[in-house]
Every structure is written in structure tokens, then in C-alpha cells.
Amino acid sequence: MNDLLKNHLTDLDKDLSNSWINLSEKVRELADDLKIKAKGSEFAAEADHLSKETARICDHVSKLHADMIDLIENIETHLPMPEPDVTTPAILDDSEALNQEIIRIQREKHEMRKDIKDILKALFLWVDDPKERLREKI
């Protein structure tokens, strides 16, 4: 697995941590407390509106969080990560072949494709490793 993918997966783990759900729930509680404290004051209507909008946002965050976890589990089930190839064929040491593969990857990043694999790559900003691509051709 290349370093870029590892970095993306690390970022994804941080984004999907429960700390965001906890923060969301804390914000919901604060908005509800403000609504209660503002009751009977000139700010009651605004506090009520803030509480309702905050609840909508928090519900949305929870749904996005759950949906992303489901999506990732689904991806892992249907598209398991390939095991790294421990053998290094001579073509991987060929800088010309490697440079050509880098150019192909750069071109592909700007092509519109409809394959699910390419859509997932775009979604996760996945960039193929030229050496991995050369291994696949062997």
C-alpha cells in the first residue's frame, strides 16, 4: 500500500472517529440549554430556531457518519485490498517504463469514467502507484 493511500486512510479514520459524534451531541445539548435559558426573554424565538437547526445538523452528521461506515464496510467486503507483491520484477527498476506509467496515471486522473472502481478512486482522491500498475501488467 503506498504512502498516499495510507495517509488517506489515516485521515478517514480521524474523520470517522466517534469524537465527531460526541462533539455533535455536545453542541446539541448546548443549543437546547440555551433555548431553555432564553425562554421568556427577547431571544427565545432565536434560541428556539437555533436549537432546531442545530438538531437538524447533528442528525445529518450522525447519518453521514453511519452511511460512510456502511460504505467502507461494503467496499472492504466487495473489494478487498490486494496483498503487496514481495517479488520485484526487473521492469519495476526500468525508469522509462515507470515514467510512462506516471504519465498514464496523470492522464487518467483527468478523464471522465463511469466504472465504479474509478468513481471510488475519485471519491477518495486515490492515486495509483506506478510500480503497482507495472506489477499488474506483468
Helix-strand layout with pairing:
Layout: H1 3-15, H2 18-38, H3 44-78, H4 95-109, H5 116-123, H6 130-137
Describe the protein's architecture and organization.
The chain is mainly α. It folds into two domains: about 15-80; about 90-135, no CATH class. Helices cover about 70% and strands about 0% of the residues. It contains six helices and no strands. The longest helix has about 35 residues, at about 45-80. The radius of gyration is 23 Å and the shape is rod-shaped. The protein starts with a helix and ends with a helix.
Quick tags:
72% helix; 6 helices; mainly alpha; 138 residues
Share of β-strand residues:
under 5%
- Based on secondary structure, the structural category is mainly alpha
Number of strands: 0
Biggest sheet record: none
Weakly predicted, low-confidence segments: none
Order of helices and strands: HHHHHH
Name the shape in a single word. Answer: rod-shaped
- Our count of domains comes out at 2
Number of contiguous helices = 6
How helix-rich are the residues, as a percent range? over 70%
Gyration radius, to the nearest Å? 23 Å
Distance between the termini: 18 Å
Arithmetic mean of pLDDT: 76
